[in-house]
Amino acid sequence: MKSLLLACSTLFFTAAGAFGQDAPVKDALWLYEPSAQGTPAAYDEAMAAACLQGIINRDAPQVYLKPAAAPTTGYWLEKFSKDDGWLAGREQKFVANLDALAALAGERVKGAVIWDPAVPATINVATTIAGVKDAVVLSPELADQVLAKWKLPVIEDLRGRFTGTESGSKKNDAYRWALREYLAKGLCSNHLLCLFEDSATSRAAGAVSYVITRDWAIKNRSFVFDLSPWADEKPKDDPDQALGTDLATYNMILEEVLRQSAGKCMTEMTGFFSFWKYSNIPGFASKHEPVPTEWETVWLISPYNCYQNTVSSDCYNQSFHSQAPFKPLKQVRPAPVGPVEDKAYLCFLMADYDSATPLYDFLPKHWDDPNRGKLPLAWGINPDLIETYPDIVTHIYQTATPNDHFVSDASCAGYFNPNRIKPDQLPLFVKHNKQFFDATDMTMAPMVLDWDQPTPAVKDAFTQFSPGGFATIVMDMHNTGGVTPKPHVWKGMPVTELLNHTCNFTSPRQTADAIHEAIKKHGTQRPGFYFFRIVWVHPTAVMDSLDAFRKEHPRVPIEVVDPYSFFALFAQHYKDAAP
């Protein structure tokens, strides 16, 4: 079967990752253990290793990074190597060192790109070039050590290249040059942008969170950048730039990738803004808190047919996992329920597995809870993650109990503000989402994040891929009069609010109180319908919270139901309600 994606210049589901593809060839699986983090040298090594891995894995899933300090890599390797896992039977061999990894890459590596530590943005520009030209990114120090013995020509030396003469900012000059020379010439992916933190502070600390992820950028020949979404505050890494310079360059990139995609596909932006540069955290004061900065980013990118795969730091081996064989998934549907009774119906969204890091790194410890399956739960997973980790998504479907159900997370197949999609682009929005919803057998979108209630056109769009239910959290960050929708049914699709009262779990008692507060706030009406978001907790924690609620509020009749039953009962009750 052909790729799940539309006709874009870079398709993720190719070769071993295509629908219905047989298991990849059983050649050796090469394991590489990077040096311990914490030094500039470790940062430089991780950068080179990520480039080599991305280039090697273009042909087939061959190289797997397995650092001692990242136990999740071992967890997934063991999971997929035993029994009938897609890696079962592959001989595992360790690559001795970085020289051996370069030798394994061989002639597939066409040269080196040397970045300029005096201009941290050039680490991202170098990554963009390396992806396009099959090159390895080297610091000046590492270049001195390996160029001769690896026999690599220097494709680009970025040292001293960017002086700020164009924009008044060395950082922005670098990105604008890369935009003209690579993105605007159609050399980069029009389906994937990478918002990866540059080397401003990370190299000195030897922090590789957004270094080891670059195998994915290299494999997909993606444009890589690190800019602020704010126009009213200078970024802390570049305080001498003219106000709004970062945002101006950001918009240039988005405009160009929209031109390149030409209405043929939506564009994913993987990665997250740098907290210390662009938001308020201890030691780095800003007028903008982290959550508003997240929302501003999505507000900014949505009109460009761009959606975010937010946190993708410390996500190992994306170029490897993405090539796992994948076939469309199926969920178990519960039996129909009804009629509606005089009680409070509760449904819990086990939320925020909407991006690569939570799915890859956070989910296992919650999914492996021995009490999972004793309570009906909705697990919020963005279906677009089958492009990145198809094997992980398949694994959780295969190990689900009849009480585990899968729905999309923020917001549908990717983190959009749907109201910000241009009306003439809604057919493409529908096509994008329907493909992923169909592939994962999803019919509900209970965590749509937006600045206002959905417009009629947006609701019409969602009925085409999420007819089972729609719930939203509205945050009117721009003070435009945004409101939460009233409960109603739109052309057969239930529409309601996702309740955020329980999002931060600290104790069962605290969560029980939050549930009660939400019921009181909504008038203690019966029947009542309460869809709660709860983030990164064990199913046991939800069960304990419900026990605490029943003990504290024995006169409140509650029933916890699965998302299918919740929305079916909701539709029965609100079938005649006005929007």
Task: Provide the number of structural domains.
Answer: 2
Name the quaternary structure.
Answer: single chain
Query: Globular, elongated, flat, extended or rod-shaped: what is the shape?
Result: globular
How much of the sequence lies in strands comes to 15-25%
The chain-level mean pLDDT equals 94
- Percent of residues in helices comes to 25-40%
Instruction: Give the low-pLDDT segments.
Output: 1-7, 9-25
Ends apart, CA distance between termini? 41 Å
The number of E-state strands comes to 19
Radius of gyration: 24 Å
- How would a textbook summarize the main sheet? 9 strands, mixed
How many H/I helical runs?
Answer: 19
Judged by helices, strands and strand pairing, the structural class is alpha/beta
What does this structure look like?
- With 579 residues, the chain is an alpha/beta fold.
- It folds into two domains: 15-321, no CATH class; 344-574, TIM Barrel.
- It is built from 19 helices and 19 strands.
- Mean pLDDT is 94; it is low at 1-7 and 9-25.
